[in-house]
Design a protein that fits this description.
The protein is an alpha+beta fold and 655 residues long. The protein has 16 helices and 20 strands. The protein has a 9-stranded mixed β-sheet with strand order 8-7-6-5-9-4-3-12-13, sandwiched between helices. Helix 1 packs parallel to helix 9 and helix 5 crosses helix 7.
Length: 655
């Protein structure tokens, strides 16, 4: 698809001059002119074809008679409270038809309604950080979250900036369009092509994006998605002004990229200067000085207010943090404020981005050279599995599928039993989706107090706002299994933190081969997740028989490994546990079959390991060989250089 069809804001030739002047005069003059002149200029504004309208996503001309860019109503005042900002009346406009087909047009109200998928402001910030994390594959080493000031009015604005690969003119248009995503990697967090729009519009009414791309050629682009602009100019479709610049290798300067004409560039630039925080092109270009050679700078301004008329994001209460003031007040006014529980990360993440709160646990693993910088200070990455005491590691196989097997870590918080916290941190593709998810609800007698787990569930799909999972049968089975896991862990371990032991766990035998394989699986999972959990400290494996299996596989025998016991543990789980009793009976038959499968899997893993080790040795030899060749070339270069200098000296003597 041609990038020019993604963003289209131009006017027809006969109305070029009048419309350009109209844009510069502002919203009040626009409304007055609209009342006096009708739809003549607004139709022209919509019908001209270039690259600023996000809704023109088909490569065809728009019939001028079928469009109207503004309703007949005067511009309504923009409410600064997010949940009320979508309440305004809109004028009626006809749907356009091109070549006998209906032409989709998206009204600006969709920006607001689309953003309501984020009930929580921090969820929107996380969505923007995901884009920076996905840029790690393009060389990103940091993402900055900070407060800056809007130079036009002095109000606070939210800055999110990374040093990734940046976006070229085509990609920035896709970013500001709906449903475009080129993230095909299985490790990429973003996948729907909607996150930037929902998250930025949830945090503020307007967002301006600066991006510098320096791969094949140096380009830099500026795009503006402004709810204020669309409301005040009474547009009935989403319009996004974008301008591009390209480095001229001949003049060694950045020059406007006029792919669709100089007039088109001028009109887009005039809109940017009128509605963005920067009133001159010089100030606009200075923002690229902050980016460097490549990267993206996102500035969200006209931030939303809460019901009290205060900023929803509080930058002033803690100069090293960003706080959701209303949520903090709610906790401080409750009885939790008198308990250590209130200060625990399981509650603090809901209102604080700070050092040991939401951003520290947002990603399961981060490269050592990547930093999240919040208001000038690096956020310390926190793997919660390292805080658990008396941990157990359970191999969970959804549907009995060994290839989709995951390691679930469960244990007591180091503060247990003094904090009333329990639940699971569930990640998907490295990103935290459900923090401290309470799978056990409405329980008394302090049941499950302090029991916390962690897992990465890539076999279920998150919702679009990445704050929950789709309620599929696979997810429901996972929820049921985690609940059983929590209750079982409590029943057999609550005595370790001072409660009366409910059940005693008899030891169960496991053959050495099975133990070796599970250790191998655990080690592989630990390496993949960069977890620092000490796998070597656990030396045996046991399988527990449930009363009712809640997963796909069902184990019929009432005796597994010769041990009778009612338990909630799933037959598809394999768990680390000390054991020394012999196995007998029907359990041996099941054990032998399971052992053979595990041994075969172990052989495959070891073969892959040997293959990787051999590849590493070959690469090392290749590196040494290339270094030797490089040294030889350098010596030869020096020799030739010396000969050349000697020849030049001889020539000078002869002359």
């Amino acid at each position: 698809m041609d990038s020019s069809t993604l963003v289209d804001l131009c006017i027809s030739d006969e109305n070029e001059e009048s419309e350009a002047n109209d844009v510069k005069k502002g919203a009040k003059h626009k409304a007055k002119k609209h009342k006096n002149v009708g739809n003549r200029s607004s139709n022209a504004l919509e019908s001209r074809k270039c690259k600023s309208d996000v809704t023109d996503q088909e490569d065809s001309r728009v019939d001028e008679s079928s469009l109207s860019s503004a309703s007949r109503l005067s511009p309504p005042p923009l409410c600064r409270q997010f949940w009320k900002a979508g309440n305004y009346e809109i004028g009626l406009s006809k749907a356009s038809i091109q070549n006998g087909k209906n032409h989709l047009r998206v009204h600006p109200m969709f920006l607001h309604s689309n953003a309501t998928s984020h009930k929580w402001a921090f969820g929107a910030i996380a969505e923007l950080l995901d884009n920076a994390i996905d840029e790690i594959q393009n060389g990103a080493t940091f993402v900055v979250v900070d407060k800056i000031f809007n130079p036009r009015d002095g109000n606070p604005a939210l800055l999110i900036q990374d040093d990734g690969g940046g976006m070229d003119p085509e990609i920035i248009r896709q970013c500001m369009s709906f449903g475009f995503s080129d993230k095909k990697s299985k490790s990429a967090i973003g996948q729907y092509g909607n996150g930037f729009k929902t998250s930025s519009m949830r945090l503020g009414a307007d967002v301006i994006v600066f991006s510098r791309h320096n791969k094949r050629k140096l380009t830099q682009s500026v795009g503006l998605l402004s709810y204020t602009f669309l409301r005040q100019t009474c547009h009935d479709r989403i319009v996004v002004p974008v301008v591009d610049y390209e480095f001229n290798t001949s003049t060694k300067t950045l020059e406007p990229l006029l792919s669709h004409g100089k007039e088109n560039f001028s009109i887009n630039l005039s809109m940017l200067l009128q509605w963005s925080p920067y009133s001159t092109e010089e100030n606009l270009m200075k923002q690229f000085d902050e980016i460097g050679t490549h990267g993206t700078r996102v500035i969200i301004y006209n931030l939303w207010l809460n019901d009290d008329g205060n900023m929803e994001l509080d930058f002033d209460s803690d100069l090293e943090d960003i706080i959701i003031g209303e949520a903090q007040k709610l906790f401080e006014s409750s009885r939790l404020s008198k308990q250590i529980t209130h200060h625990h990360i399981a509650y603090a993440y809901q209102y604080s981005l700070r050092f040991q709160a939401y951003l520290s646990i947002l990603y399961l693993r981060l490269p050592q050279n990547f930093r999240i910088v919040l208001r000038g200070k690096v956020v310390e990455h926190h793997n919660y599995a390292n805080d658990l005491k008396f941990p157990e590691f359970i191999l969970y196989r959804p549907g009995g599928n060994m290839e989709a097997a995951i390691i679930t870590t469960i244990g007591f918080l180091k503060e247990a039993p003094y904090v009333n916290v329990h639940g699971f941190n569930v990640y998907h593709r490295n990103r935290l989706i459900l923090p401290f998810w309470r799978v056990v609800k409405n329980v008394g007698d302090s049941c499950a107090r302090g029991v916390v787990g962690l897992l990465e569930a890539n076999f279920v799909e998150p919702t679009h706002n990445k704050q929950d999972f789709e309620k599929t049968s696979l997810f429901q089975k996972l929820e049921a299994r985690l609940k059983e896991m929590t209750l079982e862990y409590w029943d057999f371990h609550c005595g370790l933190i001072g409660y009366n032991q409910k059940k005693h766990n008899p030891p169960v035998p496991v053959p050495p081969q099975q133990s070796l394989l599970l250790d191998s699986c655990l080690e592989e999972s630990a390496l993949r997740n960069h977890c620092s959990t000490n796998i070597d400290s656990i030396s045996h494996v046991s399988a527990r028989r449930p009363e009712k299996s809640t997963d796909y596989e069902q184990i019929e025998p009432q005796q597994v490994f010769g041990v009778k016991r009612k338990s909630r543990t799933d037959a598809n789980d394999v768990q680390h546990k000390p054991s020394d009793q012999p196995a007998s009976g029907i359990g041996n038959q099941w054990q032998d079959e399971e052992t053979m499968n595990l041994v075969q899997e172990n052989k495959k893993l070891r073969a892959q390991l040997l293959e990787l080790e051999n590849s590493e040795k070959q690469l090392d030899l290749k590196v040494k060989q290339l270094k030797g060749e490089l040294e030889d070339v350098q010596h030869e270069y020096k020799r030739l250089l010396a000969e050349s200098e000697a020849i030049n000296m001889i020539k000078e003597e002869k002359t």
